[in-house]
Write a structure and sequence with these properties.
Elements lengths: L7 E4 L9 H16 L3 E4 L13 H12 L5 E5 L5 E4 L11 H14 L2 E4 L3 H13 L15 H9 L5 E4 L6 E6 L3 E6 L7 E3 L7 H11 L4 E5 L6 H11 L5 E5 L2 E2 L15 H7 L3 H9 L14 H7 L10 E2 L2 H14 L2 H14 L11 H11 L9 H5 L21 H16 L8 H15 L1 H13 L7 H8 L1 H16 L1
Parallel strand pairs: 1-2, 2-3, 10-11, 12-13
Antiparallel strand pairs: 3-4, 5-6, 6-9, 7-8
Length: 498
C-alpha cells in the first residue's frame, strides 16, 4: 500500500490590514490539524491585490501569530530581529515574488484550451452586470471573448490591447466535493462564472495563485472561511485541468455579532491587536477562538494549546455561524488572570500603569506595594488595561470627589462626620506593624454593627478610595498602610466640615 502523504496545512493571509480574529481562528485550526498529525504548518503571504496592501501588514500579521503561539514550520517567518525571512524548500512564499510561476501555468491552460484572453472593457462588464441585475438573472461573464481564435487573441495581445485571462468553465453537469465540515457540496457548472485568472496588470487573481501555490507547496488540507465555498468549483476545475490531486477542503462558519450580523469593526474590535493592546492573554484568546464553532463534546471550556492539539477534531465544527460572545471572552481571560502568580500578573499590569502615567517608570516602582494593589483586584480583573481604572486611587496624593458621595443612603452629613471621626480615632490606636485587614475588622466591625454597617463602612471606603465602587475599606486600608489611610480619612472629614 502506498504511504499517505504528510499532512500539510497553510494559512495564507493578505497583508491588507491587521490580523482579524477570524483569520486567527483559521490559522489556529490549520495549525492544530498539522500538529496533531505530525505535519507541517506553512505561512504564505498573498499580496497580489497590490492596491490594498498596508505598510507593515505582513509584520503585524506575523507578530500577532507569534504572540498567540502559532509559529509556522515553513514559509514566511520572523527572525530574532523581528525581520521577515522565508524558510523552506517550496518558496518563494510571497505571491508577488512568484509571478513567473503563475505566467507559466496560465500559459499551460491557454495552450490546452482551458483558459482564454478576454478584451472586454470595464464599461462593458459594468453594463452587462446592470442588465443581468435588471432582468433578475445570475450575474457573471457572458463568454463574449470565448470564441475568439487563439491566433486573433495572440495578435491583439501583441498589439498591446488591454486584456485579462479567464478560466474556461464547463457549462454542463455539476462540480461536487466533500467538505470536512459540511459534507457533500454541489454546484451546477452553468452557474459558475468564467473567473479572471490573470488581471490586466499581470498579477494573478486569488483563484489561480491559490491553486498553483497549494499544489506546489504540497498542501493536503485547506481550511478557510465559508465565503470561499462558491469559489471551490473553480479551484477544483483548475486542479482537474492541471491533472493535480485535489486537497481536502474545510469551510469555516462565519463569526457573528450578538445580533447575528457578520462580525465587523462597526460593532466592536475585530483585530487581534485590539485584544492584545487591551490586555487579553494569548492563551485566553486562543482558547476562546478555538471554541468559536468547535464543540469538544463535553463540559470542558478551558484548554491549553497543547490540549487543543490533542482534543481538536474538525468534524466537530458546527456548520452555522459562531457568536462572538465578548462576555465569554472576558470570563475566560479573567479565569486565566486569576490563576496567575501575583508577581507575573504585576509585571503584566505594570506597562499599563506606566502608560497611564500613574507610575512614572519601572525604576520608580515599589514592587511590594504594587503587588498588594494588583492582588486586591486580581479577582475582578477581566483584562489587563482595567487595572488603570480599578487601582488609580492608590497612586494619587489627593482624591477629588464630592462630599455627598461620603454619605450613605438616608444618612446625613452630621452623622457621617461623627462616624468618620470615630473611625479616625480607632485607626490611630492600631499599631502600624499590625495594621491589617483582620485587626481593622476586629476593631471597627462592632462599631459598624452598632451604628449601622452602611453608615460606617460606606464613608470609610469612599474616604479611602474616592470611588462609588471599589474593594472593601479594610482591604484598601491594609494596602495603603496606617499613615496614608489616616491622611485620607482626615481629608474626608475636612471635606464634610466645609
Amino acid at each position: 500500500m502506498p504511504s499517505q502523504p504528510k499532512i500539510r496545512t497553510r494559512f495564507a493571509p493578505s497583508p491588507t490590514g491587521y490580523l482579524h480574529v477570524g483569520g486567527l481562528r483559521t490559522a489556529l485550526y490549520s495549525y492544530l490539524i498539522a500538529k496533531q498529525n505530525n505535519g507541517d504548518f506553512i505561512l504564505r503571504i498573498e499580496d497580489t491585490d497590490q492596491e490594498r496592501l498596508v505598510k507593515d501588514g505582513t509584520v503585524n500579521i506575523l507578530q500577532s501569530l507569534y504572540w498567540a503561539g502559532i509559529i509556522p514550520d515553513e514559509g514566511v517567518k520572523l527572525d530574532k530581529n523581528n525581520k521577515i525571512v522565508q524558510a523552506g524548500d517550496n518558496g518563494p512564499y510571497i505571491q508577488s515574488e512568484r509571478l513567473e510561476i503563475y505566467q507559466k501555468y496560465v500559459q499551460e491552460l491557454i495552450d490546452k484550451g482551458c483558459a482564454y484572453y478576454c478584451f472586454c472593457t470595464q464599461e462593458r462588464l459594468d453594463k452587462l452586470r446592470q442588465e443581468q441585475q435588471k432582468n433578475k438573472i445570475p450575474t457573471g461573464y457572458d463568454g463574449c471573448c470565448l470564441n475568439i481564435s487563439p491566433e486573433e487573441a495572440k495578435k491583439r495581445v501583441l498589439n498591446g490591447e488591454k486584456h485579462v485571462i479567464r478560466l474556461k468553465m464547463p457549462k454542463a453537469g455539476e462540480t461536487s466535493f466533500l467538505d470536512l465540515i459540511r459534507g457533500k457540496v454541489s454546484f451546477k457548472n452553468e452557474l459558475v462564472d468564467d473567473q479572471v485568472l490573470i488581471k490586466s496588470d499581470g498579477f494573478p487573481t486569488y483563484h489561480l495563485a491559490v491553486v498553483v501555490d497549494d499544489h506546489l507547496m504540497k498542501i493536503t488540507h485547506i481550511v478557510r472561511g465559508e465565503e470561499w465555498i462558491s469559489s471551490t468549483p473553480k479551484h477544483i476545475q483548475l486542479y482537474k485541468y492541471f491533472d493535480w490531486e485535489i486537497p481536502q477542503f474545510a469551510h469555516l462558519p462565519l463569526l457573528l455579532n450578538s445580533d447575528k450580523s457578520k462580525l465587523s469593526k462597526r460593532q466592536g474590535d475585530v483585530a487581534v491587536n485590539d485584544y492584545q493592546n487591551k490586555g487579553y492573554l494569548p492563551e485566553a484568546l486562543i482558547n476562546f477562538v478555538a471554541l468559536l464553532g468547535w464543540n469538544p463534546g463535553d463540559d470542558q471550556e478551558i484548554f491549553s494549546l497543547k490540549e487543543l492539539i490533542q482534543e481538536f477534531k474538525i468534524e466537530k465544527i458546527n456548520k452555522s455561524g459562531a457568536i462572538f460572545n465578548l462576555d465569554k471572552l472576558n470570563w475566560l481571560n479573567g479565569s486565566y488572570l486569576r490563576q496567575m502568580d501575583i508577581k507575573d500578573l504585576t509585571q503584566k499590569c505594570l506597562p499599563y500603569l506606566i502608560q497611564s502615567k500613574l507610575i512614572k517608570s519601572e525604576k520608580d516602582v515599589n514592587l511590594n506595594y504594587l503587588q498588594k494593589i494588583v492582588k486586591l483586584e486580581q479577582e475582578r480583573l477581566k483584562h489587563l488595561d482595567e487595572i488603570i481604572d480599578l487601582t488609580h486611587f492608590f497612586f494619587k496624593d489627593k482624591l477629588n470627589y464630592q462630599s455627598d458621595l461620603l454619605i450613605w443612603k438616608k444618612s446625613d452629613r452630621e452623622h457621617t462626620l461623627n462616624n468618620l471621626s470615630i473611625i479616625k480615632d480607632s485607626v490611630e490606636k492600631i499599631d502600624s506593624t499590625n495594621f491589617n485587614k483582620e485587626n481593622l475588622e476586629k476593631i471597627l466591625m462592632p462599631m459598624a454593627q452598632d451604628r449601622g454597617v452602611g453608615d460606617v463602612l460606606w464613608p470609610m471606603r469612599v474616604a479611602l478610595s474616592g470611588e462609588q465602587n471599589s474593594p472593601g475599606p479594610f482591604e484598601i486600608a491594609e494596602v495603603l498602610g496606617k499613615k496614608e489611610s489616616l491622611k485620607r480619612i482626615v481629608s474626608a472629614i475636612k471635606l464634610l466640615e466645609k
